[in-house]
Amino acid sequence: MTEQKQLRLGAFMRPVSLHTGAWRYPGAYPDANFNFKHIKSFAQKLEAAKFDAFFMADHLAVLNMPVEALKRSHTVTSFEPFTLLSALAAVTEKIGLVATASTTFDQPYHIARRFASLDHISEGRAGWNIVTTSNPDAALNFGLDEHVEHDERYHRAREFYDVVTGLWDSFADDAFIRDVESGIFFDPEKMHVLAHKGESLSVRGPLNIARTPQGWPVIVQAGQSEPGRQLAAETAEVVFAAPRDLEGAKSLYADIKGRMQAIGRNRDHLKILPAAFVIVGDTVEDARAKRAKLDSLVHYDSALASLSISLGHDASGFDPDGPLPEIPETNASKSSREQVIRLAEKENLTVRQLAQRLGGYGGLAFVGTPQTIADEMEQWLFEEGSDGFNVVFPFLPQGLDDVTDRLVPELQRRGLFRRDYEGTTLRDHLGLPRPENRFFAQVAQAAQ
Amino acid sequence: MTEQKQLRLGAFMRPVSLHTGAWRYPGAYPDANFNFKHIKSFAQKLEAAKFDAFFMADHLAVLNMPVEALKRSHTVTSFEPFTLLSALAAVTEKIGLVATASTTFDQPYHIARRFASLDHISEGRAGWNIVTTSNPDAALNFGLDEHVEHDERYHRAREFYDVVTGLWDSFADDAFIRDVESGIFFDPEKMHVLAHKGESLSVRGPLNIARTPQGWPVIVQAGQSEPGRQLAAETAEVVFAAPRDLEGAKSLYADIKGRMQAIGRNRDHLKILPAAFVIVGDTVEDARAKRAKLDSLVHYDSALASLSISLGHDASGFDPDGPLPEIPETNASKSSREQVIRLAEKENLTVRQLAQRLGGYGGLAFVGTPQTIADEMEQWLFEEGSDGFNVVFPFLPQGLDDVTDRLVPELQRRGLFRRDYEGTTLRDHLGLPRPENRFFAQVAQAAQ
């Protein structure tokens, strides 16, 4: 008898929600971007529901958008991830804490140090979502007039990863003797000076932090683009790319796991957890009604911009309450345009509803009852569409409560999700091995 | 009747202590560098004693020292300040949280964001200890082969401060309307784009964080050197420079407050809180015995290096158990050498004891009973040697308990220190005004 496959569940968080209309939903916390008490309550509920991780999305700029959209957006400001997740580390005990940090606009010594420190503070619960930051507005906040090109960013990201992980291995696990009698605090033979000099980076080391409980914090990536998939296959331990449907997901899953095998990595050492927007209702109709209500809170001015971008065609002249008209071929990505047209047909959406859907949250979504959503998640798991999900909550706190109080028990009943944490670290939750120190032979860990 | 002057007390912390022998002291926590539970207990004790702030010292490198000293040092590794203080913010309610961050090796957008985020998380308790990082080992960890020169560092620091404080003023205090009915989240007229282009830095802004509870986190500096004093007079709100004695302190105090008046700043808007090593005993003899015991735990190999540097003369040939011999004139700072010679004479120290004193903690110290130390602190306060102190604990936790359980009650009995917090923010504790937003007229604050 083989052990049943288990879903891994992360929470992909913005304080108010990733959905742009969420702050207006009845019962929402519009001030959550800077109200730590709210975020703390979310993290503690997720921990009570045995989620693997709390995952904080991030931007390095107030995003550039037309002022009519900007003034309606709750997503332009929020807590900074290192400070927020460190604060959450002190008020939680088991849940993993994944922070987004950019390789393009920060220094590897700082990044290595902050994640290592968070891993110590949280006793082994830190994860690093490596991003290369494609937003050109961010470059202007870091002294660069032009955005750094895609290839250059990925090249630097790979080197940055090597440096950070090398710094995490600055000390052997047993370097710190702390022998009061002899006065020897640590064994200098067990300290490694990295002395990295590469194309983009020059970093001497060693890191001034002992090796952490997890050895290395867990490495997380989006992994959607071609270089992103390769980087993920080589280095990532969690991937959260969000294909639109199960077919796309299976193809991405097979591709990334295949790339891993091609370079000799164990395919179980990376978990593919797509971002999935989840709305739970008493009935499927009820869930859809919640979504329609939520989408209706996206202002049409903001929504139109999203629709026009997806179509590659100015949609401002369309009748908002009519069906999507025929549009000519454009320069926009053909697949993006066709997807939008299919969505409008399938759900019989007006131009306004279509625009609000895209302007709200346009990605992969599970909308239904605890049973129908569990059916879908089960299918994704068993058909190798994913190893679990990073759940995006439509609105908070109710949308989160619906997941932890209704969906999670259904998943537990089916044996698809844990009833209690099996271990104490994020690696334990995800079933990931503790990395060997590349400079020192591993020491037997009493607690491992 | 005038209100009695009050001491302000910060705790100048390293997890094990700044004293290099402290980890070997009976009852110490040698593992505190990476044991959050210990640090949390220290912060909570300091808060119970109504300390103004918990102040985390920092380094950006494993300090370069001879291996015989290095392997005995507990100060080469520890938590990173942003992560540590954010975690402490979640488990304390009133005490201020001051983190050290370098203007030479970080980006103003990151620094502005992390401190603003910490100020929101802590509801107004953040402070920024601005350092320019003189340690050449740090440069090698940030891609620089040569250390950045002193003048260049200070020039950049001044510009960096302007950018960070400008970013903190990106939004008016009342910019975030969050009007659910109209769907307007914030007023774009109340957002300021900094668009800074200076000699060292180019930063567009705005910061993606709302203006914080304190307006700006409190600005802290060492302020000892000539450019450091001027920078402090222009920008600092707390200075922790540690003169050796009251005469030196009065001169520094008068100098910095005079510089403030010369540029039109209110002299009460900067608190001078020298770092002071405090050892409390049942009698003065008992306190001195504790210090002698602590100093004796500094290994002679480590201690000798400190003595040789202070003398500008290789001390390794001296008889450790004899008195300090006559030494010829050297290249070392004359005042440093003379101070060391005076110290040896005054306390009748052997070469070993002298070396261990300098290798342990060589700065300003108050060693005595609660009464004698309170007498000294009172004198410093009333004679304008300082506005209070940043207390350095000789060993932890006992050295801290001695201060909170014995010295603080004596100060309270004399009316020199608060029995409870008067307000909720670090600015409240220190009696500092909330800065006006330089781009928007201040809004009346209900809570101010």
TrEMBL record, chains A, B:
- Gene Ontology terms, MF aspect: monooxygenase activity; oxidoreductase activity, acting on paired donors, with incorporation or reduction of molecular oxygen
Question: Does the record's keyword annotation contain Oxidoreductase?
Answer: yes
Q: Which UniProt keywords apply?
A: Flavoprotein, FMN, Monooxygenase, Oxidoreductase
The family line of this record is: Belongs to the NtaA/SnaA/DszA monooxygenase family.
Q: Which PANTHER family match?
A: ALKANESULFONATE MONOOXYGENASE-RELATED (PTHR30011), C2H2 FINGER DOMAIN TRANSCRIPTION FACTOR (EUROFUNG)-RELATED (PTHR30011:SF16)
- The keyword Cell cycle appears for this protein: no
The Luciferase-like domain covers 28-381
Cross-referenced InterPro entries: Diverse_substr_monoxygenases (IPR051260), Luciferase-like_dom (IPR011251), Luciferase-like_sf (IPR036661), NTA_MOA (IPR016215)
- Superkingdom is Bacteria
| Name assigned to this protein | LLM class flavin-dependent oxidoreductase
Sequence positions that bind FMN: 58, 100, 150, 154, 225
What Pfam families has UniProt attached to this entry?
Answer: Bac_luciferase
